[in-house]
């Protein structure tokens, strides 16, 4: 469960470049909620994720993960609760380490640090099985250095790593945006599988409205640092791009301005 109360964040406070990135975000995710997040450019989506992950502190407000107040907890300590996948496939894995060393490291999340990342035979078998399910030809490449893999292969492994030990919150920040459409689809289907199997509480930012509609049980739209649309269940299932845009315009009083989303989304 994630609970966010009146979250506010301003960058360059009191200067001509002042940016009010979050202006009072209130959001509660129940256990197992899979929420897609869309919004205009600069509406605060990444800032919200960065505040949840502890990259920087909010100016005001409170963040609780499963009733633990993490608002003032460092990013490093908070990482034991959070799985995160970024847009950049280079970010989530250690490029100089082997595939199995990366997976072994991820399987120790929340445990004391150790210099030994080696995997025993039964864990090797588990890793091979997980890699096989990715269907990206990685099952026989446990000892390959991650840095030599393609972006899509790396991103799929990052997703496995983020979910190997069940995170209390999974944060996906446009994690398929840098991939070619076919690989992006594979990683999205893997995301759906991992989230549903693990009943993971998940926030997924996307610029693709179609993806925002077809994944998850709930959808939120942000505008100028606030959540302006929040739809779930049957109501979300029945949404179309057109009805979503109308909802956004009614709630925000302005037109939806994300050229990337509008370009990549068919108008039905
Ligand atoms: N580290 C930072 N330093 C200064 N300003 C920032 C920083 N991060 C975000 N901002 C500003 O805060 C506002 C919200 O940015 P944010 O990246 O959260 O929006 P977003 O909804 O993720 O946008 P996009 O869809 O374009 O990625 C923007 O005006 C942005 O320029």
From TrEMBL:
GO CC field: plasma membrane
Phosphoprotein keyword on record: no
Transmembrane parts of this sequence: none
Superkingdom as given in the UniProt entry: Bacteria
Keywords on record: ATP-binding, Cell membrane, Membrane, Nucleotide-binding, Transport
GO molecular function list: ATP binding; ATP hydrolysis activity
Major subcellular location class: membrane
Protein location: Cell membrane
Presence of keyword Ubl conjugation: no
Membrane topology: Peripheral membrane protein
Domain ABC transporter, chain residue ranges per copy: 2-249
PANTHER family: NITRATE ABC TRANSPORTER ATP-BINDING PROTEIN, TAURINE IMPORT ATP-BINDING PROTEIN-RELATED
Similarity annotation: Belongs to the ABC transporter superfamily.
Name by which UniProt lists this protein: ABC transporter ATP-binding protein
Native species: Turicimonas muris
Lineage of origin: Bacteria, Pseudomonadati, Pseudomonadota, Betaproteobacteria, Burkholderiales
